[in-house]
Every structure is written in C-alpha cells, then in structure tokens.
Amino acid sequence: MVTEKFRLTKEHWAKAAAIAYDRTIGKEIWQEKIQSSRSGLLHIATIGALGEIIFSELTGLPVDTNVYDRGDKCDFSVGDLRIAVKTREWSGDKLEMHLFPDEPQRSDVFVLFRLGDRCDLIEMIGHITSEDIIDQHKPRHYRHLYGRKIVVPVSDFNKPYEILELVRSSRDQTSQPQDLPF
Q: Over the stretch 53-99, which tens digit does the pLDDT of each residue have?
C-alpha cells in the first residue's frame, strides 16, 4: 500500500485542539458525557481535526469550524462533491475505517488518515466512495460496546493522491478560481 506522509507541527496540534474544544464543548448533546469523560472526547475530536487540517492544506478547501448540535453532514464540499475525512490512531497491521450505518449517505467520498505512533506524522491512506461502501459493506454488530458499524478494511481504499485529482476536477467543473496547492 502506497501512502502519503506529512509532518505535524505544534501549530497543527494547537489548531486541532482549538477546533476539538469548540466542537465538544459547543455540543449540547455531549454536555453530560463531557462531565464524565471530557479528556477522551477532546482527544478523539483533536485526532479527527488533525486529518481535516492536513486535507485542507492539501486541497485549499477551508476546514468547517462551525459547531453542529448533532454532527456535520460532511467535512468538505466542492461543487456537488461531499467529502468526509476520518483519522485513526491505530498503529497495528489491520487498519480499518469504522462508520455509523447512516454515514455513507451524508458524504460522497471518505478519506482516511492515520496518525503516526509518535504523533509527529500523519499519513493519508486513501479514499473510498460511499457507493463502494454501500455496495460492498453492510453494518454489523461491532464489539459489544460500539453497536452497529460499517467496517471498511484499508485494502478497499483507492490511492491517496487520486482524491486530490478528484477535488481538482470537481473544482474545475464548478469554475472556482482558487488554485490548489498541489
């Protein structure tokens, strides 16, 4: 598997932590959970924000910093293309993306990042379309604590750089004048 790796800076971590703080503290639905597991939720949200920040830098698309009470529809959009970015910390061999059963209907493409073991690198693993997810993967009961999930193995993902070309072609079709940094 060919991946693209990017070095994380203190600025990336600070920006991700600020976004995560706003997203967790700003959600009424999480207020009760925050009282009991605040650091865990902030950690999860920070890791997710790191992938979004790097994707933003690669594509020139802005990170959505709005706070939604029940989650966002997608992380990025260009023209009619809706993109969700997922970031995992898993360092083992069997990397997977886990989705709630309704997530494939909210985005057209899912991009997977993985945080490095020492937290100084993040790698873009690849992307997969929601159509491929729906066609090839069915929700199943995933461990007793997590409920029903769609589990997508990394072997089903397309090459990482292809999503950048997809963003470029979507941007060309919508004639958005901003140049992409790749």
A: 999 999 999 998 877 766 667 899 998 899 999 999 877 778 889 89
Strand order in the sheet with 81-88: 4-7, 121-129, 109-115, 81-88, 76-78
Other C-beta atoms closer than 10 Å to the C-beta of 15 total 19
Q: 3-class DSSP state for residue 88?
A: strand
Between the CA atoms of 60, 62, 63 and 65, what dihedral angle is there, to the nearest 10 degrees?
170
> Taking 90 as the threshold, does the pLDDT of residue 16 lie above it?
yes
Beta-carbon count within 10 A of 148 CB: 11
Helix (H) or strand (E) holding 40: helix 31-59
State the amino acid at position 20 in one-letter form: A
The 10 Å CB-count burial string (b at 16+, else e) for 28-53 is: eebeeebeeeeeebbeebbbbbbbbb
- Write down the residue that tokens 């995560």 correspond to: 20
Task: Please list, in sequence order, all residues whose beta carbon lies within 8 angstroms of the beta carbon of residue 14, skipping any fewer than 6 positions away.
Answer: none
Q: pLDDT tens-digit profile of 119-150?
A: 899 999 999 999 999 999 888 776 665 678 89
The vertex-3 CA angle with 49 and 112, nearest 5°, equals 35
